[in-house]
Design goal:
The protein is α/β, with parallel strands linked by helices and 256 residues long. The chain has eight helices and seven strands. The protein has a four-stranded parallel sheet, with helices on both faces. Strands 6-5-7 form a three-stranded parallel sheet, sandwiched between helices. β5, α5 and β6 form a beta-alpha-beta unit. The longest helix is centred in the middle third of the chain and has 18 residues. The relative contact order is 0.18. This is Sirohydrochlorin chelatase.
Length: 256
């Protein structure tokens, strides 16, 4: 409606749509992994309904990342690895798939290390029965997938350090493959130090073969994988926002 001065106000400008958030999962033959990842994405969507959220796998499950990116066409997208440390997938596989796609992509950091992961690890341990024994006899093995990349082991060791500071007990990282110590070796080390109540913290994003094998090696309690813990959804969005802040050319999303 014209104003009293006869001037027509300019039309409201529409805020550009935020870039797509593409969660990049590894993939697993265990059907529980895919259902867990999909449930986690639902949590992310609920926290930020204005952001389009998609899933792409590195291998083993559909949709594969190249197919997800191809479907996005020339859309702007931020790729958030659902991985807990740096390694070959973060440094090579995902960037190469992104470079071969038509989408305009930006790579976010992997989820770990970060205090939000420590929140989730602590809660999963508590759910499994942690806290029922004296600290002087307790310890934790942080079981991770493993990688030959030294940066991956550095990141896992950092998470172990953060979890130890939180719990007030020793926390040793251990690996299911490609690195040492194994869970059995870490348990023996802690037993030799007089720690009789040794819990296993499952440093996996979802159930799968490695998580199951590590849990079976636990001498006392074994926590569930991180899965759909609320901190995981928060951390996915935190990494997405970090990548956007590092790229002024991409529009910032509107928080819910």
């Amino acid at each position: 409606m014209p104003s009293q001065l006869g001037l027509v106000p300019p039309p409201a400008t529409r805020r550009p749509a935020p870039p797509a958030l593409v969660v990049v999962a590894h993939g697993s033959r265990d059907p529980r992994a895919l259902s867990t990842v999909r449930a986690l994405l639902d949590r992310v969507r609920a926290l930020r309904p204005g952001v389009p959220v998609h899933l792409g796998h590195i291998e083993l499950n559909a949709p594969l990342l190249p197919d997800t990116l191809a479907a996005l066409g020339g859309t702007e997208a931020v790729l958030v690895p659902l991985l807990l440390s740096r390694g070959y997938h973060v440094k090579r596989d995902i960037p190469e798939m992104a470079a071969a796609s038509p989408a305009r992509t930006r790579m976010a950091a992997p989820l770990g290390p970060h205090p939000l992961l420590v929140d989730a690890l602590q809660d999963r341990l508590t759910e499994a029965g942690w806290g029922a024994t004296p600290r002087r006899t307790s310890a934790v093995v942080l079981a991770a997938a493993g990688s030959r990349d030294p940066d991956a082991r550095t990141d896992t060791a950092r998470t172990a350090h953060l979890l130890a500071a939180r719990l007030g007990v020793p926390v040793l990282p251990a690996y299911a493959s490609a690195a040492t110590p194994t869970v059995h070796q870490a348990v023996r080390t802690l037993l030799a130090r007089g720690r009789r109540h040794i819990a296993l913290a499952s440093y996996f994003t979802a159930p799968g073969r490695f998580a199951t094998e590590c849990a079976q090696a636990a001498p006392w309690i074994a926590a569930a994988p991180l899965g759909t813990h609320p901190s995981m959804a928060e951390l996915v969005l935190h990494r997405y926002d970090e990548a956007l802040r590092a790229s002024p050319s991409l529009p910032l999303p509107v928080s819910a």
